[in-house]
Specification:
By secondary structure, the protein is mainly beta. About 0% of the residues lie in helices and about 45% in strands. A hairpin with a 2-residue loop joins strand 1 and strand 2. It starts with about 25 loop residues before the first strand and ends with a strand. About 30% of the residues are buried.
Length: about 220
């Protein structure tokens, strides 16, 4: 049986996004010109609380809530925001690391509720997958959090590990081998798919950030 959801709101991540001074995300990509552009602030932080520190470049901060309900179609949870989730051609090099953090709320129908599945993707390539999750029934106002750490072993090979949790349940999404990615321009994505379509089967993403971790110089 898959992971069972609890009904309490997920714990706060306890982190805030840094400010947005001028800068560039990648060579040839200026920042600060449009609502879809974002700057980079040099800062230090830990990665999943493991004490691995480096400068953080915020690529994207979501400013709208995306809700997926009453459908069995795999749907994006990424909405409008400041910055971009479009990764430039040849974005990854050996050591390039991205961190995704997202959170929100969900509800479920009476039994049988069906299943739930979330995926972290680059274009159509799946980097991390919760697998089939079995939620509790009749949940109203449950919370969820997903954290994902993607590190490049080369320009075409990445490995992604992370955690999917709410306040009662934790599921580690562990990969032991690399995933082959394209070097073309592609969007970074977080998707959800319900196994049963019902108006009460609803998951909303209220917060999402994508960061590029950069070694200090």
């Amino acid at each position: 049986m898959g992971l069972r959801f609890g009904t309490m709101v997920a714990r706060s991540l306890g982190r805030t996004a840094p400010g947005f001074p001028g800068g560039v995300l990648e060579e040839g990509h200026p920042i600060g010109g449009s609502p879809r552009d974002v700057s980079v602030e040099q800062n230090t932080s830990s990665i999943f609380g493991l004490g691995l520190s480096g400068a953080i470049g915020i690529l994207f901060v979501q400013t709208s809530t995306v809700t997926v309900a009453n459908t069995t179609t795999e749907s994006t949870l990424v909405g409008d925001g400041v910055g971009t989730v479009s990764l430039a051609r040849n974005f990854f090099a050996t050591g390039t690391t991205l961190r995704l953090r997202a959170a929100g709320v969900f509800t479920t129908k009476a039994a049988p509720v069906g299943t739930l599945r979330l995926k972290v993707k680059k274009g159509s390539t799946v980097l991390m997958d919760t697998g089939v999750v079995t939620p509790l029934t009749d949940v109203d106002g449950g919370g969820w959090v997903i954290r994902s750490l993607i590190s490049a072993r080369s320009s075409t090979l990445v490995i992604d590990n992370g955690v999917f949790e709410n306040s009662l349940d934790v599921k580690f999404m562990l990969n032991l081998s690399e995933v082959t990615i394209n070097t073309t321009v592609e969007d970074f994505d977080l998707t959800v798919q319900w196994g049963t379509a019902d108006v009460a089967n609803s998951l909303s993403c209220t917060n999402l950030t994508l960061e590029k971790l950069v070694m200090p110089v």
